[in-house]
Write a structure and sequence with these properties.
The complex is a heterodimer of chains A (697) and B (136).
Chain A (H helix, E strand, L loop, with lengths): L6 E6 L2 E5 L13 E5 L10 E7 L15 H7 L12 H6 L5 E6 L14 H7 L11 H8 L25 H7 L21 H7 L12 E5 L9 E7 L37 E2 L2 E2 L2 H16 L6 E6 L5 H12 L5 E5 L10 H11 L1 E22 L9 E7 L4 E6 L1 H10 L5 E6 L5 E7 L15 E2 L7 E11 H9 L5 H5 L7 H17 L2 E5 L1 E5 L6 H10 L7 E6 L3 E3 L6 E3 L4 H5 L1 E6 L4 H14 L3 E2 L1 H13 L2 H17 L4 E2 L1 H10 L3 H11 L17
Parallel strand pairs in A: 10-21, 10-24, 11-20, 16-17, 20-21, 25-26
Antiparallel strand pairs in A: 1-2, 1-4, 3-6, 4-7, 5-7, 8-9, 12-13, 12-15, 12-18, 12-19, 13-14, 15-16, 22-23
Helix pairs in contact in A: 5-6, 7-8, 9-14, 16-17, 16-18, 17-18, 17-19, 18-19
Chain B lengths: L4 H44 L10 E6 L2 E6 H36 L15 H11 L2
Antiparallel strand pairs in B: 1-2
Helix pairs in contact in B: 1-2
The chains are: A alpha+beta (697), B mainly alpha (136).
């Protein structure tokens, strides 16, 4: 066996190809490495097998397919072939298992764990295919079918727990261990990871799932660098695709803001926060509380409740709110306002608040239409020879399952000629309105040298029946409905002096209509979240208004955040905790955030470095962490980009200590600034002394 | 998490059964729709060729099961229209049932429920009004 080498072996049905992994990137350490496994489309019986062996102690030779023993491999990786392509999707997918094993540890993989050579039925019984064949739509099928293989790559000193590794001498253990688990069980659950000491646990873990129809390369993300350490790591992947790490699509350029690295709350399914996930680090208790709030919002149980997130500056309050917003998803309306926005001169304070409230409540309605969707085989329109008289025409539409001919009336003929529908287009005809929509051209009609316009899209031939029922669910916020109903039509708006305020009667009418629809079952309310930041800026009138508004039956969840201690309530002379009146505080659930520890600060700085596209050396990171501890987290974050610029000036790609020191000298933080000011206050204009300066720490 | 193989098997069986249900329903819808289309084509032919078929004595051949019958056109048209109505209701029923079955399947597979599927749809003019309001 190979020792202390990082190698990948790609085997396609007996043919073994060794190929080296690319060396771990020294620069951008995302702690992930791509392992690309290509699977061919028609590899019904050719699972791609990837072996990666690392470490000192070799895997037992019987475990790994021997080089030069093709049948050895064949017998092991028995695919269940997919005989007929014409079968339904279920069959296609049902017959291709992909097996993922990842075993790491000192003790080598026991032979009885891996499929034995020459025991074909043994394999068949083990490799139960489970596929996501039950999706209603093809696209979903494809998506999920490729998310089914689980790859665990752990390279570390601590070995994988022993019960992951096939135990020596427990033959039934093997059979029971390799349980196919379908895509439905979350791959990120801790119970997916091999646990020590629970033999049956393994069976539940190693789900064979194969997407042999993947046309693109399947990418496997491994959690850490594939550098050989002192352990044996055996990764057996058969045409596997993994989505264990977080992926998000960046389809548009997003501005890098102070909280743009946050993708969610980073919780597991049991609402325990992972130490660092989805951009959030530390703050375990506050994140756990936010997770509970998230679940209650999703179930609609917290409507009309208020939540307060309080803590020192720079402790992640806005970050938690952002994480909560992201994790609720695009379905739930989330409105984030800053309390000072209330004081706009265009509208009264209560109007701004009411609009903010109504922007956080969504109404879900459904639209149903019958459409005829198919690919045009032939369009035939006959004009009468006499010049007058109606045109007649025939339209042949087909889907993958059926084909039929339609007689065309005048209206449809006009619509078809207007849209310039030709053979090979995929169109949709709305049965009720007769509207024709072109979805694109069919792939089957694409030729090599077609001259197509810039807008031409190629779509697949539609499946299923020709006459489909299309249901579209819309979520609109109450505010949108208010605004458009309130708009005075036409030129009357010029004379009416539209203040932007919405009349109470309009709102009442809309409430009544929505209530009527709710009773009829045609609409449902989606209570969302209203987040008010810097809530100490609200004055006593606003607080009274919010008190009342929360009692409404259509009220969202209100989350507020502040970093003030005991301050004066605006509009009064009374002091109160956080600047919020006590009766309002009584209605609130309070989440506390604590200042970050050094380790957490380091982690956060690392995430920000990645987000801002800077590479930083380790010792520079340590220095930056110390600066963050002594001064403030925000200051350290701001130094990152500045230090990056300093490094670029030196023509280096990485931030070094000297860069950090330089920008530390150039840009002073708040404490040094105060000190400087105290020393030289006489020399500043209009200075009145520092006794009344606000203490922010 | 230690789960016994029997439990896993049982779960798999449930998922399989539910999936089979859904898929067979959809296949049935396709078949019914095919029949509906052929019926529609036949109706069109009968209606357009009514003038031309005066000569054949207002009778046409229809195929029922494995029998061919020659019946007067009015009877044939009636027959086909009745069958169309029946097919329509059947397809609608299947589609309505499909919704709950897919939800059940999603449950079993621990996927998220598709939202809003238990809503009744808005009527035609209500939707037109909403579209106008929202400007979509």
């Amino acid at each position: 066996m190979r020792r202390t080498e990082t190698k990948l072996k790609l085997a396609f049905c007996g043919r073994a190809q060794w190929s080296h992994l690319p060396p771990p990137h020294s620069g951008r350490q995302r702690n992930q490495h791509r392992l690309t496994v290509f699977s061919r489309r028609d590899t019904a019986s050719e699972p791609a097998v990837v072996y990666a062996t690392y470490g000192i102690s070799p895997v037992q030779s019987s475990d790994l397919p021997k080089e030069g023993s093709p049948e050895g491999e064949e017998t092991r990786w028995t695919p269940i072939s997919d005989s007929s392509r014409e079968e339904s999707r279920y069959r296609e997918t049902a017959s291709e298992p992909a097996v993922v094993y990842a075993t790491y540890g000192i003790s080598p993989v026991q032979s009885n764990d891996l499929p034995k050579e020459g025991s074909p039925e043994g394999e068949e019984t083990r490799w139960t295919p489970i596929s996501d064949s039950f999706c209603a739509e093809k696209s979903r099928y494809r998506d999920t079918a490729s998310e089914t293989a689980v790859v665990y790559a752990k390279y570390s000193i601590s070995p994988v727990q022993s019960n992951d590794l096939p135990k020596e001498g427990s033959p039934e253990g093997e059979e029971t261990r390799w349980t196919p688990i379908s895509d439905s069980f979350c791959a990120e659950k801790s119970n997916d990871l091999p646990k020590e000491g629970s033999p049956e646990g393994e069976e539940t873990r190693w789900t064979p799932i194969l997407d042999s129809f993947c046309e693109e390369p399947i990418t496997v993300r491994l959690d850490s660098a594939l550098v050989s350490l002192s352990k044996t790591h055996v990764v057996l992947i058969m045409a596997a695709v993994s989505l264990t790490s977080e992926e998000h699509e960046v389809t548009r350029i997003e501005r890098i803001g102070a909280h743009s690295h946050i993708r969610g709350l980073g919780l597991t399914d049991e609402l325990t926060p992972k130490p660092s996930a989805q951009g959030m680090v530390g703050q375990i208790k506050a994140r756990r509380a936010a997770g509970v709030v998230h679940n209650m919002v999703k179930e609609g149980k917290l409507a009309g409740q208020a939540v307060l997130i309080a803590g020192q500056p720079g402790t992640g309050k806005t970050a938690i709110a952002n994480g909560l917003a992201q994790s609720l998803g695009p379905d739930t309306p989330f409105t984030a306002v800053s309390a000072s926005e209330i004081y706009s001169l265009g509208m009264s304070k209560t109007e701004v608040l009411t609009q903010a409230f109504r922007r956080s409540i969504g109404v879900r309605i459904k639209e149903e239409t019958e459409i005829i969707e198919g690919e045009v085989v032939e369009v035939q329109i006959d004009r009468p020879a006499t010049g007058t008289g109606a045109k007649v025409g025939k339209l042949t539409l087909k889907t993958t399952e059926m084909e039929t001919i339609y007689d065309l009336g005048n209206k449809l003929i006009e619509a078809l000629t207007k849209e310039k529908v030709q053979a090979g287009d995929v169109i949709t005809i709305d049965k009720a309105t007769g509207k024709i929509t072109k979805l694109g051209r069919s792939f089957t009609r694409a030729r090599d040298y077609d001259a197509t316009g810039p807008q031409t899209r190629f779509v697949q031939c539609p499946e299923g029946e020709l006459q489909k029922r299309k249901e579209v669910v819309h979520t609109v916020t109450l505010h949108e409905i208010d605004v458009i109903n309130n708009r005075t039509q036409g030129f009357m708006a010029l004379f009416s002096g539209d203040t932007g305020e919405i009349k109470g009667e309009v709102r009442q009418q809309i409430n009544a209509k929505v209530a009527e629809w709710r009773e009829e079952g045609k609409a449902e309310l989606v209570p969302g979240v209203l987040f008010i930041d810097e809530v100490h800026m609200l004055d006593i009138e606003c607080f009274s208004f919010i008190n009342r508004a929360l009692e409404d039956d259509m009220a969202p969840v209100v989350i507020v955040a502040t970093n003030r201690g005991i301050t004066r309530i605006r509009g009064t002379r009374n002091l109160s905790p956080h600047g919020i009146p006590i009766d309002m505080l009584d209605r609130m659930i309070i989440i506390k955030t604590t200042p970050y520890q050094e380790k957490e600060i380091k982690e956060i700085l690392k995430i920000r470095c990645e987000e801002e596209d800077c590479e930083i050396q380790d010792d520079a990171l340590v220095v930056l962490t110390k600066i963050g501890l002594e001064t403030s987290l925000r200051y350290a974050i701001q130094l990152i980009t500045l230090a990056n610029l300093a490094a670029m000036k030196r023509k280096e790609k990485q931030i070094a200590i000297v860069d950090v020191k330089k920008v530390y000298q150039l840009f002073i933080d708040e404490q040094r600034s105060q000190k400087f000011l105290k020393e030289y206050e006489d020399e500043f204009m209009f200075d009145e002394g520092t006794e009344t300066a606000m203490e922010t720490n | 998490m230690a789960v016994s193989p029997e439990r896993i098997q049982q779960q798999l069986e449930e998922v399989e059964a539910a999936a089979e249900d859904v898929i067979s329903d959809r296949q049935e819808i396709v078949t019914l729709d095919r029949r509906r289309n052929t019926n529609r084509e036949a109706l069109r032919q009968l209606k357009t060729n009514k003038i031309a078929s005066q000569s054949t004595g207002n009778k046409s051949w229809i195929c029922v099961g494995n029998m061919f019958l020659k019946l007067p056109n009015t009877v044939v048209v009636d027959c086909i229209e009745k069958e169309q109505k029946q097919l329509d209701t059947e397809i609608n029923n299947l589609r309505n049932g499909l919704r709950s079955k897919v939800n059940h399947l999603n449950d079993l597979e621990a996927k998220q429920k598709t939202v809003g599927t238990n809503l009744k749809p808005l009527s035609q003019d209500e939707w037109k009004a909403v579209k106008q309001v929202l400007g979509r």
